[in-house]
Amino acid sequence: MTVLILTCEQDVTADMVVARLDGTGVPVVRLDPADLPGGVALSGEYVHGTFRGHLSAGGRLVSMSALRSVWVRRPGVPATRVAEASAWLTEESTQAFYGMLRSTGARWMNHPDAARRARHKPWQLHLAQRSGLPVPATTITTFPQAARDFAERFPDLVVKPVSGAHPQEPPRAVPTSRVAPETDFSAVAFGPTLLQRRVAKRADIRLTCVGDRLFAARKPVGPDADPDEVDVRFAVSTAPWHPVETPPRIAASVHRYLQDAQLAYGAFDFAEDADGIWWFLECNQSGQFGFVEIETNQPIAGAVADWLSAPGPDPAISNGQLHFTECPG
Amino acid sequence: MRPFALNYARPAQELEASVPYAYDSRLQLNVLPDGRIAAHDYAVLRELGATTSTAGSKTHFDD
Q: Nearest by CB to B60, which of A19, A74, A191?
């Protein structure tokens, strides 16, 4: 039974997992849906009451019924690396590719439906509250007056994108940023704006969850840190990440969160305050983990490999076709 | 008419710098010029920031 990894070629974090799997004897097929059609090919039949499909990439051919798991890591958009790309071909290729994969009994990390829902930050905040995680006071609004009222109640605020996406043309980044006192909120009317009470943090926490395994890492805020640099991705810091224990209450809430979100993988960001409380910021359903493993030696790639190579699909779901994987000689 | 959050935008750091490894479709891994697997060379990965959260990425924003 084969592990299917969907990601781009330059994804060296995926390499960390592929290298682990190579030592286990579990067949792996790695491909980028951007190369469909061409470098990636597919075929499927719905005949005599059953589905049988095949994928090929890089000289490897795999039956879809032989897939034990699918890891959606950093896949490109289908049909975007082909000679004559078009929106129509992308839609056709997306439907064919993901539609057929959904027809298999493979386990997903993470299922596309769960992943799409999990990307919504407002829903994340709701689920975090429901799961018992501390969530900083937050508003998302297009009413300037609502923003002013919120700023009166919570004078020390940060602003961040609702989606986490960054604008292009030209490429820009919108880091979580501190909102100065007396800020003019008029422009809130021109786009949904997420304002959140700033957590005076003494450390950033990255909690990487693989199945039911948790890997928490902590990066302390330096004593000379700029208080206006609140986004750990942009802050200049030489402090390393260190492994830490996950408080049992947080662990229970995170498990509840992942279960309700139907996620097999999630990378949670918390801000630790002076009292040691971990405040939920977000859960990245496809968050990076390589930098954490490199600095902490936590075996995250191994945990991902273990999850992916665990026993395959439910036989009742699988279509019972002959399983095979061909690898290049 | 600029949305409020864009008042805090800054130029994105492009991460398209050339990398010292290349994808080997036979191994399904990126390898260094001397044949070693790139993912085993933490010094290279750390230097390139190739495994970190990529704020400003064009294609992925849930890092």
A: A74
Residues A226-231: contacts with CB under 8 Å, at least 24 apart: A227/A178, A228/A177, A228/A178, A230/A158, A230/A175, A230/A176, A230/A177, A230/A178, A230/A198, A230/A201, A231/A160, A231/A175, A231/A176, A231/A177, A231/B55
CB atoms under 10 Å from CB of A292, counted, come to 24
B3 chain-A contacts, CB cut-off 8 A? 187, 190-191, 193
- B41 at A interface, C-beta within 8 A: no
Which numeric CATH code is attached to A117-122+126-132+200-299?
3.30.470.20
- Axis crossing angle, helix A12-22 with helix A300-309, rounded to the nearest 10: 60
CA A159 to chain centre: 22
At residue A90, the 3 state secondary structure works out as helix
Q: What's the pTM value of the predicted model, to 2 decimals?
A: 0.90
DSSP A162: S
Rounded to a whole number, what is the distance in Å from the CA of A194 to chain B's nearest CA?
Answer: 8
- Computed over its alpha carbons, how large is the radius of gyration of chain B? 16
Q: Give the one of B8, B13, B50 whose C-beta lies nearest to A159's C-beta.
A: B8
Phi, psi of A108 (to 5 degrees): -115, 140
Pull the structure tokens for residue A160.
């961040």
B35 CA to chain A: closest CA distance, Å?
A: 14
Q: How far is A185 from chain B (nearest CA, A)?
A: 7
Contact of B18 with chain A, judged by CB distance below 8 Å, is answered with no
- Measure the CA–CA gap between B63 and B61, rounded to whole angstroms: 6
Distance of CA A312 to the CA centre of its chain: 22
* ipTM rounded to 2 decimals: 0.87
Note the pLDDT tens digit of each residue in A227-276.
777 887 776 667 889 999 999 999 999 999 999 999 999 999 999 999 99
- Inter-chain residue contact A231 with B55, CB threshold 8 Å: yes
